[in-house]
Amino acid sequence: MQMNREKLMTMATAVRTGGKGSVRRKKKAVHKTTTTDDKRLQSTLKRIGVNAIPSIEEVNIFKDDSVIQFINPKVQASIAANTWVVSGSPQTKKLQDLLPGIINQLGTDNLDNLKRLAAQFQKQMPAAAAPVSDDDDDDVPELVAGETFEAAASEGQTA
């Protein structure tokens, strides 16, 4: 152990960084930044002909059981190239968390997910809390053969 410390100390004194007569670096370290990737992406999108779409408040991307939600994103689109670019900070949420507000956004693809979610909700709901269906058909009178509602209404007005 003592031998290693001595060797290390002699090697440390022999190392010289900078100054006259020091060894030059053989290769310059290149630090890539993410801005070059962003610039490259923007130039490619410009070549495709992508235009910004203003005043979009929310974008929801539906997956099997979850929704990727962007609030106030930057949206760009090129209809000719069938390309949509959504950039912003995403949040992954469950479908049932967003349900009341996004029913009008659900398409036919998500109808099965909605049915499955409703079935799960029915299973979770205890039997005691389930709504009891009473037969309220007693209030509606039975139809008499040969009479119509219009004829009964006109008789009621003349009488």
UniProtKB/TrEMBL annotation:
Residues 15-37, 125-159 are annotated as: Disordered. InterPro entries: BTF3 (IPR039370), NAC_A/B_dom_sf (IPR038187), Nas_poly-pep-assoc_cplx_dom (IPR002715). Residues 35-99 form the NAC-A/B domain. Transmembrane segments: none annotated. SMART domains: NAC. The keyword Kinase does not apply. Part of the nascent polypeptide-associated complex (NAC). Belongs to the NAC-beta family. This is Nascent polypeptide-associated complex subunit beta. It comes from Kingdonia uniflora. The lineage of its organism: Eukaryota, Viridiplantae, Streptophyta, Embryophyta, Tracheophyta.
